[in-house]
Amino acid sequence: MMTALFIVSLLVFGYLVYVLIKPEKF
């Protein structure tokens, strides 16, 4: 359970960073 939560948090964090950095190219 703890591992799944950690993975989800990592994915959300990565997605946020991706969204913040991507607009520059958009």
What is the average per-residue confidence, as pLDDT, rounded to a whole number? 88
Q: Count every beta strand, where a strand is a DSSP E run of 2 or more residues.
A: 0
Biggest sheet overview = none
- Multimeric organization: single chain
Order of SSEs: H
- The number of helical segments is 1
Would you tell me the structural class of the helices and strands? mainly alpha
What is the radius of gyration? 12 Å
The gross shape turns out to be rod-shaped
CA(first)-CA(last) distance:
37 Å
Portion in beta strands: under 5%
Q: Helicity range of the residues?
A: over 70%
Query: What count of domains describes the coordinates?
Result: 1
Low-pLDDT stretches are: none
GO cellular component, one term: plasma membrane
GO molecular function: P-type potassium transmembrane transporter activity
InterPro entries: KdpF (IPR011726)
Protein name: K(+)-transporting ATPase subunit F
Descriptive notes:
It comes from Flavobacterium silvaticum. There is one protein chain. This protein has 26 residues and is mainly alpha-helical. It has one domain (1-26). Helix content is 77%, strand content 0%. It contains one helix and no strands. The protein has one helix at residues 2-21. The mean pLDDT is 88.
Walk me through the topology.
Blueprint: H1 2-21
Characterize this entry briefly:
It holds the Pfam family Potass_KdpF. This is K(+)-transporting ATPase subunit F. The chain is mostly helical.
